[in-house]
User: What shape does this take?
Amino acid sequence: MARKKAPLGTTPRRPPALRAASVRYAGGRPGVVRRSVAVVEPEADLTVLQSISVTARSSEADRDAVENKLFQLVSPHSRVLVIGRDTWPLSRSLSGAGCRVSVVETRHDAPAGPETIAHRVIVGDPDALDLDAALDGAQFQAIVAVRLLEHVRNPVGLLAALGKHLSADGGVVAAVPNIMHGKIRLGFLAGRSPGDLLSADATSPSHWYDGAVLQRTFEHAGFVITKVERHLEAFEADASPLDGPPLPALVDGLSRDADAMTRTFVVVAHPFPLTGQVRVEMRVRELAQLHERAAEQTKALEQRAEDLDTRYAELRRTVDGAMSTIDRIGDDVRRVAARDSRLQSPLTAAHRRLTSNRVDVEAIRRDLLRFQYELLVPRVRTAIEAALPKGAVALVVSKGDERLLALNGRTGWHFLRNDKGLYAGHHPADSAAAIEALERLRAEGAGYLVFPQVALWWLDHYAGLREHLDSHGRVVVRNHRTAVIYALDRSDTGR
Assistant: This one.
C-alpha cells in the first residue's frame, strides 16, 4: 500500500522563544556535530517579519515546491544523506517519513531541528570537507543535493566523492536552478545581473546550468541521469529589453518553450554502469509514461470524436429542417398552381427547382450519415475489446457489416445469422423470434450481445427482447454514443 506523503513546508513553527537544536559554527573550520543542543533564541523582530515582500513569499513557496519534488523521489525508510544549504526543512520531512537522515549543512548559522531529525550532522564547506573522513565510510541509499551544485567550486569532483558513499542501486537526487528560465533571459536583455536573477538571497551561484550542462556535469562525474522532472514557473516581463522584438511577442514565444518555463531541474542520477534493478525501474517508468501519454491521446481523440458527433448531429438537424421546408413550400406551390391556371407554368418550374434542391440536400444528409457511421465502427470495436475478455464470442447487431466483427482476440458473429454463419439479411419478425435466435446462438457459444449506436432502436422496438436481456443477462457497457453491450449470463463477471 503506497505511503501518503505530506507536502513540505507544512510543519508547524515552534514558539520563537525556544527553537530546538540550532547548530552554529564559529571556528571557521568544518565541524562534525554528533548530537544537537537546544538553545534559546531572541524574540523575532516583528517589524522585520512584516516587511517581507511578496517576491520573498513567492520564492519560499517555489522552494517548498521543489523540496516536495525531492521528497517524493526518496523512498521511505531509506538511509539518506541531505547535503547543501538550508537543509533542515527537507531533512525534517524525510525523518518524519521514517528515513535515517544524515546532514551536511553548508551554512554555519543554519538553524537545526530537534535532535531526533538527523543521525549525523556535519557543518562546513563541501569544497573543503574530507567527506570520506567526515562520513566515516557510511553508505546511503539516496543522497539529496539541495542548493548545492550551483554554489560549490568543483561540482564534478564533489559528485564523484559523493558517489563513493552510495549503496548498491543508490542514487543522487538533486535540484538545480535553470539559467535558461524566461525571467532570466528577459533579465539579461534588460541588463540585469544573472546572479541576482538566479538567487533570492545574497549568495550568488558559482556555476550556472542549463539542461545540457547539467547532463555533462553528471556524466563527467561518472553518473547517468535516469529521471528528470521540471519545476515550472510562469513569468512576466518587469523591464523592457534594450533592443529586439516587442516585449509581448517575446514573452509569448518564451512561454511556449519548455526550457524557458523551467525554473528548476529536479534529477535522479545513478553511477555508471547502471545496475539491473535501476534499468528495470527506468523501463517500468518509461512504460508508465508511454501508457499515460497513450491514455491522454485516447481521451483527446474520444473528445474530438464526441465533438464531431455533436457537430454532425447539428448539421443533420439543419439538413432535415431544410428538407421539411422544401417539402412544405412544394406543397404550397402545387396548391396555388391548382387554383390559378395562369401561374401553373412558372410555379411548375419553381417546383422542379425545389425538387432538385431537395435531392441535393438529401445527398448531403446521406453523406453525413455515412461519415458518422465510419466514425462509429472503430469506436464499437474498441468498446468490445475493452469490455470483453479474450476468447469471448460476441453477437453484433448490424446489417451485415463485416468490419464490426473484426475483433482482436475475440470472435464476432452477426445477429441475426444463417446456418452458414453469414448475415441473415433481415431483422427478427418480433421479440419472440429475436429471443429464439438469441438462445440458439447462446447455446452455440455466444456470450455477449452488442447493440451499436445505430441499432439502439432495437431496445425500444423489440421490448420483449430487452426484458429478456434484463432478466437473464446484465449490461457491461452502456454508452449511447457508441454501443450497449449485454453479457448473456448474469454470473459472467467479464474481464
About this structure: The chain is about 45% helix and 15% strand. The two ends are 23 Å apart (CA to CA).
